[in-house]
Amino acid sequence: MPKKRDGGGLSKTQQAAKFLGVSVLAGAVLAGLALPAAGALGLTAKGSVEGFDSIPANLKTPQLSQRTRILDANGGEIAKVYSRDRTVVGLKDMSPYIQKAIVAIEDARFYEHGAVDLKGILRAVNKNAQSGGVSQGASTLTQQYVKNVFIEEAGDDPDKVAQATQQTIGRKIKELKYAIQVEKELGKQKILQNYLNITFFGQQAYGIEAAAQRYFSKHAKDLNLEESALLAGLVQSPSRYDPVNDPQEATRRRNTVLQRMADLKDVTQAQADAAAKKPIKLAVSRPKNGCITAGDGAGFFCDYIRKVFLGDRSFGKNRKIRAQRWNEGGMTIRTTLDPQTQKSIQASLSDHVYDDDPVAGAATIVEPGTGKILGMGQSRPYGFGENQTVINLSVDHRMGGGAGYQPGSTFKPVIAAAALEQGTSPEQEYPSPYRMPYPSPVQTCDGEWQGTDSTQNENKEEVGPYGMKEATAKSVNTYFVQLISDMGICPAVKMAQKMGIERADGKPLQQVPSMTLGVQEMSPLTMAAGYAAFANGGEYCSPVAIESITDARGRELKVPQTSCRGAMSKKTADTINTLLKGVVEDGTGREAGLRGRDSAGKTGTSDSRYAAWFVGYTPNAAGAVWVGDPQHKRKMYDITIGGVPHDKVYGADTPGPIWRDAMTGALDGRPAPGLPTVPIDDPAKDKSPGDDGDKQPGKHKPGHGKKPGGGWHIPGFPDILGGGNGGW
User: Fold this and answer.
1) pTM for the whole thing?
2) Is 621 helix (H, G, I), strand (E, B) or coil?
């Protein structure tokens, strides 16, 4: 029985039903005339809306969320990313069958009525009055489109989605008014096109193009009769009629649509019967969303692109706007990623470091002079499974990386460049004893450092005097301690800043003498881009990853550009080239040398061997390789990496070969220009190769006085500041 109000009379629901029925019959709604305020009819329950007149007349249609394609430098697809898998297409790119099928099953009188269907509303009013609620709708295709607009605006907010779909008189009135506007402004064909692009078809597919791809692996324009009927039948309940999970229920629903099309003369009865006899034949294309689908280890670079977009003001004045723009998608993003370089990096890492090894490896290659990131990979795949990670070990913390890793002696060329810029001769000699205290005090940028810390070389035979060339080739710690003490810490800090070399955690560089030994954590991308300045005649160019972006409307967006600046003179850069060529030709980095082309670089190993590095370059590529434990817990002693056992891991024997193989493949078939150098007279010294800990096994003596947990302890001296011998 219909519900009565207290004291008799019609209930609120019945009043509303009567009001809508009378209004429609009177033509008020169809004419778009003002209706009495809902409150005057007793529609004051929670969820009702204000008066019809007070509803804004302008329906703001949101930009439909679409998939974004991320491409490499050659136009190859790296990945598709989207919050909603959708590709907007025009009616000309939709099969006539799907257009007829959706109208037949959802709104057969679509082309005959206006914004609302008189017959449908009367039927719904009668049904709802009998039930005492709003159990049956009378939504036209236009009204359904309006509701989908509300849902699209709600995004992934569950509360907003609930508001957009709640069954209330208030929402229906609001829907009616906007439907009137949409009919007036768009017309039937545009409404049908918009509806087919916005509606949800299940299996993460929004819009008919995505649905056709998902279920049949074809374009919407190629859908046949039975395929179109099946997809049209999904709209009412995508989960209930899902052909993947319940083909029998989906078949029944499809055949209902076919019969409806026959009843409306959209197809003949014979066509409908023939289609109904056919079994459902799916060609399901599983959703491929996100960077996890990227091949050749490019998932980390893909995610780096997202971080760049969300963090750069070129794409919006604040992060909320940028995030909304990213979620709307519909973009084509062409990146700097070179597929040849990326494949080579990943192949080299996979060969030398296994994903289930106790440590990991990461590598990045950039292009000197442009800052373009050509490749970025790591040994542990992008993902959430066992031996996988979504932490990008190649970049700083703010860009999705970790806390960084001590670069060890790969920081020494920065000290050398700073000294050369201050007028120090590359032929400068220092006594370079096996062990020595840091000279004190040492000038900093804002005062001076004082302390009694000390350091030592790898073995007792490593005793000077040394010149800069031999000290660099052998990575003599005490030489570089004397060098930074003489020139002061501030020039080294400023040189690092000009080369874009900064801590991975974003904190300022600590102004301590031990910085010469690379004790402050940095990322491979930072080191690769910094070394690229040596290859580029002393000019540093900030890393960039995006070449161009086209939005959903085909407009070119402004993208961040590299920023280049002089970090040092060309003479200084050429001198560093000479020093670092010596490393790969006669020093600690011999295993990293390239055949048939000039190269230069430096090995590095941190305290307690938590990290090992090789950073090097040619005139057309600069790369950094790190191997270690991302958690800074596993020391690389008595360890097997990539199937190769090591008593100790050196920058030369693991990162070096990774760099060599990655660079060899990346540069295959490409020009091999020479590195400009300068002559340096260095006193010949008949000594065993020194090192930062990167000599080959069997050619060194173990270190002395190692302090558990990192750093060194020398009797009579306090523990070294910041891990002291990070240069090894």
Assistant:
1) 0.79
2) strand
